[in-house]
TrEMBL record:
Segments forming a coiled coil: 14-41
Organism: Mycena chlorophos (Agaric fungus)
This protein's record includes keyword Transcription regulation: no
F-box domain ranges (all copies): 48-106
InterPro entries reported in the protein's UniProt record: F-box-like_dom_sf (IPR036047), F-box_dom (IPR001810)
Record protein name field: F-box domain-containing protein
Organism lineage: Eukaryota, Fungi, Dikarya, Basidiomycota, Agaricomycotina
Length: 407
């Protein structure tokens, strides 16, 4: 073959390849257009192809902690109700999954307390959680509808595992046979009798934040975790109850002026309070007595008090039957940081660290000191503590890095 013939053959082959490439590109574009048209017609994956467990898990994340009885209507239970109304398949799935209905925040106010619709929704909601255990948060802001609310709850109390009651209670709650976690807050029963009757022997986790601590009658002897929002008045009353709390291993305190008095009582000769205490968590947020921690030059009375308590509970010669304190976590909350303070929390922290570093050096104690700064004091919006989480005061401790003991 001559050179000219060779060149002609090569050009012919390249032209053929180019035509093939063009044809393939046109075919590829046609396929892309067809694919886009098909995709635009609707989803190609049916809910039925996704495992039910995954779908329910997604629904649970979307639902969160439903609420019923808000001032703005009843749409806070909407995530569940809307999903149940999408189609028959979703309705069957949602209504047949008791785990999706096992949590509810009930808000009883003047509007909901007089609403037939409110109680009808509550009667329809709670049975769908059976046979699962219930986690209820009840905010009772008024006496309106109190007897009706107690009546509706009565049949479901034997399934309540976690209960947070915020406010006053009209009447008594019987049959809490599986209750494990109880939080009471923002209530003052005064001369009323203790409203929780027949409390479960399983109750081990309790949080108390009330103005009349003398009416609190929990089974102290079976508690293992206790969270207290403690004032000076509470500190004078608690020594009459705490001698029975012989099983408490974890104590979380939100100090409102009473922690020092409680610790002084614990150190008193002949007193043996909380003998099994192993973990102590304290949150201090008081500004006016910061000097009691000490200064850069010398520790103050409060730091020395904690030092004595730690020494008593970590010493090899501690009283017989007293467990060794293993962990101390102290959180200093600093509010209004834009305003000058006579003594910042940094000084308090250093004063406490100075008197406790000997215990950590000998590996007798796990010590964690922390400062949490907020631009303003804890805000209560619509009657709720926005920093506390679903289980209230221990949320402060949880923010400090401690995993909530309400599990």
């Amino acid at each position: 073959m001559t050179e000219d013939e060779e060149l002609t053959s090569r050009r012919s082959r390249l032209a053929h390849i180019d035509r093939q490439i063009l044809a393939l590109e046109q075919q590829l574009q046609a396929l892309r257009d067809e694919r886009a048209d098909v995709a635009a017609q609707g989803p190609t994956t049916s809910l039925s192809t996704i495992p039910t467990e995954i779908v329910l898990h997604i629904f649970a994340l979307a639902v969160g902690f439903p609420q019923l009885g808000r001032r703005r209507g009843y749409l806070h239970t909407g995530p569940l109700l809307l999903k149940a109304a999408v189609c028959r398949e979703w309705h069957t799935l949602v209504c047949g999954a008791p785990e999706l209905w096992s949590k509810l925040h009930i808000v009883q106010n003047r509007m909901s307390g007089k609403s037939i619709k409110f109680f009808n929704r509550l009667r329809a909601y709670l049975p769908r959680s059976a046979p699962r255990y219930l986690e209820l948060r009840i905010t009772a802001r008024t006496s309106w509808g109190g007897p009706e609310l107690t009546e509706v709850l009565h049949a479901h109390l034997p399934r309540v595992e976690k209960l947070h009651w915020e406010g006053n209670i009209n009447g008594h709650l019987h049959g809490l046979s599986v209750l494990r976690c109880l939080r009471i807050s923002s209530g003052s029963w005064g001369s009323q009798t203790w409203p929780f009757r027949d409390v479960s022997h399983l109750l081990t986790h309790v949080e108390i934040h009330v103005r009349s601590a003398d009416v609190v009658h929990v089974p102290w002897g079976q508690l293992t975790c206790l969270c207290l929002n403690i004032s000076s008045a509470d500190a004078r009353l608690l020594p009459t109850a705490l001698p029975e709390a012989v099983s408490v291993e974890t104590l979380a305190l939100i100090d409102e002026g009473g922690a020092d008095e409680l610790f002084t009582t614990m150190l008193a000769p002949g007193r043996l309070l909380l003998p099994r205490l192993r973990k102590l968590f304290i949150r201090y947020a008081r500004r006016h007595d910061a000097h009691r921690w000490g200064s850069d030059s010398a520790p103050g009375s409060r730091a020395l008090l904690l030092q004595r308590l730690v020494q008593q509970r970590t010493h090899d010669n501690r009283p017989e039957g007293v467990a060794r304190l293993e962990a101390l976590h102290v959180v200093f909350f600093s509010f209004d940081i834009a305003r000058p303070q006579t003594q910042g929390p940094e000084v308090s922290l250093q004063a406490l660290r100075a008197v406790l570093e000997g215990f950590t050096a000998k590996k007798l104690l796990t010590l964690q000191l922390q400062i949490k700064e907020f631009p303003a004091p804890v805000q209560y919006i619509n009657g709720e503590d926005q920093l506390s989480g679903e289980w209230g005061a221990e949320g402060y401790i949880e923010q400090a890095g401690y995993v909530s003991f309400v599990t």
